[in-house]
Amino acid sequence: MNLQSTLENGLFALSQLLRLPVVALLWVCVLVALFLVGGCVVEWVARRRERQGFDLDAWLRAGNVLDLDEARGGLLPAELKSMLDDALALHSNGGLADGGLEHLVLERDERVRRSLFASRLLVRVGPSLGLLGTLIPMGTALASLTAGNLEAMAGQMVVAFTTTIVGLGAGTLAFVVQLVRHAWVNETIREQRFLAERIGAELDSQDS
Questions:
Q1: Nearest-CA neighbor of 133 among 161, 110, 111?
Q2: How far apart are CA 81 and CA 50, in angstroms?
Q3: How far apart (Å, rounded) are the C-alpha atoms in residues 84 and 82?
Q4: Which ranges constitute the DSSP H helices of 52-116?
């Protein structure tokens, strides 16, 4: 057996070793995709409930931000309320000065964007694993065809096409979740920055 045959057979054996991890990871992708869809539905219900009739412009016109009462603060959506609580805590300690407010806004923006990581990763990983799950059984199917075992070849082809469907399905679900949540993230970031600008203006008026 020459060196080329040895290397080729080794690569074939290596690809077969990857078969079980690829199939297992495809199951993980399916579970993650279902979890993301469920989380997206729950978040949609929560956002619809807390934002029904809410207008940030009208809320800001109702009074100052730094000295608001608890009832007015309770009207804010959860993300904005959390940011405002952090800002008020920093303000009580003088932490909003010297770039503290800007650092808070950037930190909150990063925290909101982090919610897109799982769906963004699955959009890329799901189809890639589906392709791997397709090509690995096809190698075995071709070997079975060479040996004249058509039944084994048919079984391997079924596995190959099934993994493609599963990988693309998981990636598609993740892509839909990504689109929906990306719009929510942009809205939250825009509102957080608007709220921070109002806080900064009130701090400037207090200093002058």
A1: 161
A2: 11
A3: 5
A4: 56-61, 70-73, 78-92, 100-113
User: Could you give the angle at which helices 117-146 and 19-51 cross, rounded to 10 degrees?
Assistant: 150
Residue pair 79/47 in contact by the 8 Å Cβ criterion: no
How much is the pLDDT for 58? 85
Kindly tell me the sign of the dihedral angle through the C-alpha atoms of 187, 192, 193, 197. Answer: positive
* Percent of the chain predicted with pLDDT > 70: 98
Pairwise CA distance, residues 96 & 162, whole Å? 55
Q: Which segments of the chain have a pLDDT < 70? A: 1, 8, 207-208
- Give the other-Cβ count within 10 Å of 94's Cβ: 9
pLDDT digits (tens, 9 = 90+) for 5-34: 777 677 777 777 888 899 999 999 999 999
Nearest by Cα to 104 from 196, 42, 169, 183: 196
Any idea what DSSP says for residue 77? -
Tokens of 115: 């919610």
Contact 165, 129 (CB under 8 A): no
CA distance 25 to 120: 16
Report pLDDT for 208: 57
What local confidence, expressed as pLDDT, does residue 3 receive?
A: 76
- In the structure encoding, which two tokens stand for residue 134, read together? 């397709």
